[in-house]
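Input sequence (69 aa), recorded before submission:
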Amino acid sequence: MAKKKPLPASQRNSLRTHRQIFTLNDEENKALDRYIAKYKVQNKSKFIRETLMVAIIRRFEEDHPTLFD
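Predicted structure, token format:
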């Protein structure tokens, strides 16, 4: 099966144009670096982005309004 060519940046729907910057203390950074090394994470920003979004989506699913409480 042939590999698909990626779409040019101008045609993608999910361009990441909103930059978010956060800081870690020494212990948090050391823990993150150890995790990345241990589990051989190849893309640090992708890992952080996916981990953050999973936590956010999970919280939204837990807190959704219900008809009967």
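Checked by second reader. The mean pLDDT is 89.
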